[in-house]
Amino acid sequence: MPSQSSPPVALPGFPKKPMHHLTAADLPRALERYRRLLDKLLQHEDGWVFAKPVDTHSLKLRDYLSIIAEPMDLGTVSRRLELCRYPNLLCFAKDVRRTFSNAMTYNNKGDDVYESAAKLSRIFESGWVSILAALPSPPPVTVHRARLKDELPWLPVDLQGKAVVIMKDIGGWIQEVDGRVEVDFDKADKATLDKLEWLLALAIIRKCRPLDSPSASPFGHGVIPGLSEWERGHVREG
């Protein structure tokens, strides 16, 4: 039955400005940590409750979608993780938390589903603290810029082209001189640096996984996270 009380108070989350940073080299190890924590939730005796989307038709939950605006389940999180759909740790944690907060919003406190969600949420938050503790602190922007400046020229040619597309709309810091593209990295903002970081991550994942693997791209169907509508139409994997 839907809860008549207000939604539960949100569990502790991230600060508005993330205090941790994943470089391309950190990504494979971080994804493995995410996977282990997610598997722990799915293998819990109550994990099956959240392993699939809520079947509103079979359960006759006619009001579910009017109460829950963004359904989520751990099975969907697992598939997104396998396809490397999460551009950062915030997005992964947000989907896991949404799975449990939805259950605690729709069901009354004391109901089996509510209590199972609360229990698994506590397990997740405890494990998440350990993951955060293992992450490196973000480098100074100047260091980040310098490293990308050194590493981007070594990208495969197709990914270098995608890097140019990402950078081209940032006025004044990319130009063509004598047929060569020159970049003024001092003008790169953090959002753009993060997109370029994901190109480096893609290059690393390509080395780790066959190119015909459905999970070969960290962008999910080849779409780089955070791009504009125009960019999504022009930057594709493969």
From TrEMBL:
It holds the Pfam family Bromodomain. GO terms for cellular component: chromatin; nucleus. Residues 42-114 form the Bromo domain. This is Bromo domain-containing protein. Keywords: Bromodomain. SMART domains: BROMO. The lineage of its organism: Eukaryota, Viridiplantae, Streptophyta, Embryophyta, Tracheophyta. One of its GO terms (biological process) is regulation of transcription by RNA polymerase II. One of its GO terms (molecular function) is protein serine/threonine kinase activity. InterPro entries: Bromodomain, Bromodomain-like_sf. It comes from the Eukaryota.
